[in-house]
Amino acid sequence: MTDTNKLLAALLAALTDANKPTMGKKGASSGIKRNPKFKAKAKPDTTALCIAAFEAKGFKDVQPKVNVMTYKAWVAKGRRVVPGQKGTKVGPFTLFHKDQTAVITAADTTGVQQISMVAQLKLDEAAIAEYGV
User: What is the DSSP string of the chain?
Assistant: First the structure.
């Protein structure tokens, strides 16, 4: 019986070793075969693209993530895009230069609050008319 146990142990060890992935080649450890025709696309250098795009539009001091940001980033910094200004598309982003923005004032926020209150009243009136609440 001990010979049978040794034979089973050797057989299990051989099967286990045969199922282990080899570490010699990239991707072999996951067991996934890679398509040799597939090549990962290189990401474009958005910083260089941003600088080139804004300098082409005539902006002198262009520093991405410092004075060139998205609309929401400017709002988070307490600035708003001046009405009529056009954003510059760089990759998937629409960006604005600091010269295209202005500081958000109390009058700006009051107007926004009044608009949102009117919109809420209209929603409430619609709900009352529809559901009789």
Answer: -HHHHHHHHHHHHHHHHHHSPPSSSTTTTTTPPPPTT--PPPPP-HHHHHHHHHHHTT-S---BTTTEEEHHHHHHTTEEEPTTPPPEEETTEEEEEGGGEEE--HHHHHHHHHHHHHHHHHHHHHHHHHH--
Query: Would residue 29 count as lying in a domain?
Result: no
List Cβ neighbours of 85 (8 Å cut-off, separation of 6 or more): 96, 100, 101
Residue 52 in any domain: the answer is yes
Separation of first and last alpha carbons in the chain: 83
What pTM does this model have?
0.53
pLDDT in tens, 55-78: 999 999 999 999 999 999 999 999
Look up the domain containing 85 and give its range. 46-104
pLDDT in tens, 101-118: 999 887 776 666 666 666
Q: Check if the beta carbon of residue 95 is closer than 8 Å to that of residue 68.
A: yes
